[in-house]
Design brief:
There is one protein chain. By secondary structure, this protein is α/β, with parallel strands linked by helices. It has 15 helices and 24 strands. β19, α11 (365-373) and β20 (378-381) form a beta-alpha-beta unit.
Length: 502
């Protein structure tokens, strides 16, 4: 007969952390969130790649492109560029991240001189800032002809059909710099001339980058940036178990620092074959994560196949309906606890520590701390990052509030059939994800900083200042349904709803 687990599986919301002794050293500024990404011999060597914050972005069309990858690497995390696109397009995104020069921004708002004020207003609304580069062809690398900022127009006094050429600041009135300019030199020019932005152009007058005055303090304030040994931002990339023989070489050539097999369920021969091919052709030089799994057996299978880290979670994502459509999965907390125990057992037997990634089920910021306490070394987040300015989706107004589009890789919109591949025909048979909206939350930096401050504060309440100590010393308790209600506000009438409640 079938095997039945004795206890129900649980989610993060069913647990609370019990406070520990807080010493004078346990203050948020002393907390380190550095954590390993890839397997290593603990106590004998360092992990080949370590994150400075325990966050990676999900392998999703609506989350992880090159823009978000740069923003997250700046904070100390890592993005996995989505693989449900052509090999050439994914490799190009990876290459753009690796080629990105800190402080040198490729313009994302570009128009032609014959466009109109209405076009300016539309692009400002879409991208959330008012610096628009005017080029001969309306592209980010066209010949620079001028700049439009909020100081160049007044909507109340100008018709919306007025041509950009009539009110832009033309090239001859701009201060520009050659492409050989360093970031320090660019910032000196900005400060000397009291500029808000400095265009960087090549010998042919084509726009290369913009350097912004407001970014100066930001660059000085990001000591945790994820950089490789050449001082380039680090970036990951998603692959599948179908075209890996063509996709992996292209991603490696583009400079991807780590790969991850993107699949809803990882306890399969297909993932083992994918990892085996990578090991045969690249040895251990290419780091590869695998998953997803929800129990000890799945974890050990992927580790023995050669995975550098293992993702945990099936059906817990906010846009995932795998449990509804297929009836498989496990409560995220229970899955994580089970896999973490297997990870620790494997380490004791072999001396090799294999990091695990909690993927899905995180709704509130405190869930992040719970995931780390339950054994996760880092978390993969989709909905969380989809809400920010830097995610690749559109910002739209819905019922009077700004939202951002967010869809699952298993939705008809994404049509990422490779993610759910079981070795059959190459087609999308049924949905395992939905197409939705999430509440717009603003810049990535501000939100990540706020979320991680909560994590650090809670760790201090538990009497620890590192993730390994949290995993070792945390005390957790299951809570009843009544306790969950008690944990929020109750028996009061709210005056207003705080915008930062999550």
């Amino acid at each position: 007969m079938a095997f039945y687990y004795n206890e129900p599986s649980h989610t993060f919301s069913e647990y609370l952390l019990i406070p520990g002794y807080t010493s004078e050293e346990c203050i948020p500024s002393n907390v380190s969130l550095r954590t390993p990404l890839c397997k290593y011999r603990k106590g004998e060597e360092e992990s080949p790649i370590s994150l400075n914050i325990p966050m990676v972005s999900a392998i999703m069309q609506s989350v992880s492109d090159d823009k978000l990858a740069v923003a997250l690497a700046r904070e100390g995390g890592l993005s996995f560029i989505y693989g449900s696109q052509s090999i050439e397009a994914e490799a190009a995104m990876v290459a753009r991240v690796k080629a990105y020069k800190a402080g040198f921004v490729v313009s994302d708002s570009n128009l032609r001189p014959d466009d109109t004020l209405a076009d300016v207003l539309a692009i400002v609304e879409r991208n959330g800032h008012n610096t628009v580069a005017i080029t001969d062809d309306g592209t980010a690398n066209g010949v620079l002809l001028g700049i439009v900022t909020g100081r160049d127009y007044r909507v109340s006094r100008m018709p919306t059909d007025m041509k950009v050429s009539e009110f832009m600041t033309p090239l001859e009135k701009l201060i520009i710099a050659p492409e050989t300019t360093t970031l320090k030199e660019a910032n000196d020019i900005i400060w000397d001339h009291k500029l808000n932005q400095l265009p960087i152009v090549d010998d042919n007058g084509r726009l290369m980058y913009l350097v912004f005055r407001k970014d100066y303090a930001q660059h000085k304030g990001n000591p945790q940036e994820m950089l490789d040994n050449k001082k380039r931002y680090m970036v990951g990339a998603g692959i599948n178990s179908r075209d890996y023989a063509e996709r992996v070489p292209a991603l490696v050539e583009a400079g991807a620092d780590v790969l991850c097999i993107d699949s809803s369920e990882g306890y399969t021969c297909w993932q083992a074959k994918t990892i085996a091919w990578i090991r045969e052709h690249y040895g251990d030089s290419v780091k590869i994560g695998a998953g997803n799994v929800v129990d000890r057996d799945g974890f050990l299978f992927l580790v023995k196949a050669g995975a550098d880290f293992v993702k945990v979670g099936i059906g817990g994502g906010s846009i995932c309906i795998t449990r509804e459509t297929k009836g498989i999965g496990r409560g995220q907390a229970t899955a994580l606890i089970d896999v973490a125990a297997a990870r620790d057992e494997y380490y004791k037997e072999t001396g090799i520590y294999v990091p695990i990634c909690s993927d899905g089920g995180i709704v509130h910021d405190y869930h992040m701390t719970l995931a780390l306490a339950m054994g996760a070394d880092f978390m993969m987040l989709g909905r969380y990052f989809a809400r920010f300015d830097e995610s690749p989706t559109n910002k739209v107004m819905v019922n009077g509030a700004y939202m951002k589009e967010y869809w699952g890789e298993g939705s008809n919109r994404a049509r990422n059939w490779q993610r759910y591949d079981l070795g059959g025909s190459s087609k999308f048979s049924f949905e395992e994800g939905v197409d939705s909206y999430v509440t717009y939350a603003g810049p990535l930096h501000d939100n990540v900083e706020a979320s991680l401050y909560k994590v650090k504060s809670t760790m201090c309440n538990c009497g620890v200042t590192t993730i390994p100590d949290l995993q070792k010393n945390a005390r957790l308790t299951l809570v009843s349904a009544t306790s969950i209600v008690e944990g929020g506000y109750h028996d009061v009438v709210l005056k207003s709803t705080s915008t930062n409640m999550r």
